[in-house]
Here is the input.
Amino acid sequence: MGIPFVDLKAQFRAYEAEIREQIDSVLQSSQFILGPKGADLERRLAAYVGAKHAFGCSSGTDALLLALMAYGVGSGDEIITTPFTFIATAEVIALAGAKPVFVDIEPGTYNIDPLKVEEALTKKTRGIIAVSLYGQCADLESILKISSEYGIFVIEDGCQSFGAARNGKMSCGFPQVGTTSFFPSKPLGCFGDGGMVFTSDDGIANRISGLRNHGQWERYRHRAIGINGRLDDLQAAVLLAKFPHFPAEAERRAAAGARYSVSLGDVVTVPAIAPGNTHVYAQYSIRTDRRDELAAHLSENGVPTAIHYPVPLHRQEAFAHLGYGEDDFPVSSAVSREILSLPMSAFLSREDQDEVIRQVLRFFGK
Ligand SMILES: *Cc1c(COP(=O)(O)O)cnc(C)c1O
Here is the structure.
């Protein structure tokens, strides 16, 4: 048995009775869509992140799309984000009919560089999607300051950072909107696709509540063009069973990451945690200019790895129409060549952590 990259099987075994009980209660009630489990989950997670409202969504992608729709984003608008993220962040901007405007990342945290944001502002800029990549918050104070100065909105893409804190505030709970994903391998995952959008803005909350349900605020009265963007109650039930264990899991992930960093800091670039941040390590990602050789060595020795992300978005065919050049975002491009994610989960045993560390050190002759 090799080391699992994300150990979902061990997690299921640990909570199996609670998960089955929650699922069974949905099956008994036959309330599958916009039922009591979803509402209960929304209340609990809103309280956890410190937001006034939460809306379960069909995915993290739809949570982002709904946030843009709630702000009325469309043709002629520009939304600023980084090219070093999962495609969904920028895909929804284009889906909403707007133009993604990329700015480069900070070399330490791989999150959006607030100084670069100011340079990219135009009269058409409507908002910023700040991704809290790998599990630590972006510099949201600086981004929110720009947003209030220029009258534009901020969405935190917290699809990887649910459970992380920044200066005592939880990811997804910052003003104005935060979104997360419950894709199975995310820090808090369900058994399929799911996501959530959080806000403390009553107006935006009201828009999202109808937009995620076909633009209905009242049954069969469609006041706006919406989507089928709801989280179903079976997924909410799984999350209700897992959530009580989540804070302890986040601590175990952070502890595993800290052990990696102490042991590997001499041979590779380990994740830099910005002052005031905690890290949930949705991905534990190191950097080395011998990335591909290291990945091959680890694979041969039973240690799975992944690359998040090998091709920055400005070089993706889907965004060729934006007209960016290969060399436009040098930090993003350099990081995409050197980044490598190691096995990480709350159920990664100490022995497996030691084996990962041993194999990385062995590659570097240590
Ligand atoms: C996973 C992810 C998404 C999309 O979430 P889905 O639930 O897979 O749709 C968006 N942004 C980031 C940064 C992600 O990691």
